[in-house]
Amino acid sequence: MLTLPSLLIVMTTFLFIFLWHPLTMTAVIIFQSLVIAINLYMYTQTSWFTYILIMTFLSGMMIIFAYISSIVPNETITKMPFFISVSIIMTAMVVLMLFLTEYISFTYLNMPLNMNALYNLSTATIFKIFKSNTNIMAIMLISYLLIVLIMVVKITAFNKGPLRIK
C-alpha cells in the first residue's frame, strides 16, 4: 500500500521525465527532496538526519543549477503541454489530500517485517552517515565537484552570459 508521500514522490519523479527547462527541473527536484525529508522524518522521528539530508540535497541542487545555467542559453519557459499541466494539478491535489487528511497514521504502516526493521533506526546508526570505508569516496566526490565548479567558473566569461547562445 502506497502512502500519500510515497505516491507524491512517484508522481514528481514521473513529472520530472517530461520537463525540459532547468528552472522547472530544479523546482521539481527541490519539491521532491522536501517530500522525501518529510517522509523520512515521519518514519524516523528525528529531525537531525532529515535536516542534514535536505541541506545536502539543496546544496547539491545549487551547484548543479550553477553548472546548468552557465551552459544553457537564456530561454523563456514556454506554455506547458497538456500532460504536464494535468500532472501538476494531480500533484497539487495529492498535496492537498496529504494536509487535509486527518486519519492517516504514518508511523505504523502496512509493511513487511523486514521493511519495518529498516525504519526503526536508532540514534547511533543515524549518526554514522560516513563510515570509514566510504570516507575516501566521499572526499574524492567532493573534490571532483569543487574542481569542476572552478573549471566552469574559469571557462565562462562573466560579461558574455552562457556558453551556448541561441
Description of the structure:
This protein has 166 residues and is mainly alpha-helical. The chain contains seven helices and no strands. Helix 1 runs antiparallel to helix 4 (82-100). The radius of gyration is 20 Å and the shape is flat. The model is unreliable at 111-116 (pLDDT under 50). This is NADH dehydrogenase subunit 6. Keywords: Membrane, Mitochondrion, Transmembrane, Transmembrane helix. It comes from Stygobromus tenuis potomacus. The chain crosses the membrane at residues 6-36, 48-68, 80-101, 136-157.
Characterize the largest beta sheet: strand count, sense, and whether it forms a barrel: none
Mean pLDDT: 70
How do the SSEs run, as a string of H and E? HHHHHHH
Structural category is mainly alpha
Binned strand content = under 5%
> What portion of residues is helical?
55-70%
Shape: flat
Number of discrete domains: 1
- Low-pLDDT runs: 111-116
Q: Please tally the β strands and state the result.
A: 0
The rounded Rg comes to 20 Å
Measured between the Cα atoms of the first and last residue, the distance is 47 Å
Secondary structure tally, helices = 7
